[in-house]
Design goal:
The protein has a seven-stranded antiparallel β-sheet. The chain has 153 residues and is an alpha+beta fold. The protein has a single domain (33-149), classed as Dna Ligase, domain 1 (2-Layer Sandwich). It has helices spanning 2-19, 26-33, 36-39, 61-71, 141-149, and strands at 43-48, 54-58, 77-78, 87-96, 111-120, 123-130, 133-138. The protein contains five helices and seven strands; from the N terminus they run αααββαβββββα. The radius of gyration is 23 Å and the shape is elongated. Strand 6 (123-130) and strand 7 (133-138) form a beta hairpin.
Length: 153
């Protein structure tokens, strides 16, 4: 009887370990999580990359939505930034801080940086920074042109 019980425990443990590794589509959700910094943006500051000189601020919700949709992150390809690349503009995206349970929502709202995009002069590459991680991407020419026109410089 004791041997059967031990055998059953081993079998259930083995089955549990095998089925515990099932994915249940969680990878798809994780793939989309990195774009949350873009989608949830409520303010975008455009500045010159080298001088850190602020060019413009995009704050109106329709303008921010237009900016974010023009980025088309599904068309970005991971790539190494060329060594001779010259940083041109920084696009810093901000989101309102989340009011947590027990905190007052009264008073001035503060924003936090959620993502940053650095463009490069005359080449279709960007650096995308989120959660202190920097990723290099090659973007399409139309996305690169759109970003180059932002801020008017």
């Amino acid at each position: 009887m004791k041997k059967k019980l031990v055998f059953l425990i081993y079998m259930f443990t083995f089955i549990f370990l095998l089925t515990g590794c099932e994915n249940n589509g969680e990878d798809e959700a994780e793939e989309k999580d990195w774009t949350d910094g873009l989608v949830k943006a409520q303010k975008v500051e455009v500045s010159l990359a080298k001088e850190k000189k602020l060019i413009t601020v995009i704050e109106e919700p329709p303008s921010v939505d237009k900016f974010v949709s023009a980025l088309q992150p599904d068309r970005w390809k991971l790539a190494d930034i060329p060594d001779n690349a010259i940083p041109e503009k920084d696009f810093t995206m901000y989101q309102e801080r989340t009011t947590k349970l027990g905190e007052s929502s009264d008073g001035p709202t503060t924003v936090k940086e959620v993502a940053k995009i650095t463009t490069y002069k005359d080449i279709p590459y960007i650096d995308f920074t989120i959660h202190n991680n920097i990723f290099g991407f090659e973007v399409t020419e139309d996305i690169a042109e759109y970003l180059a026109k932002q801020g008017g410089e």
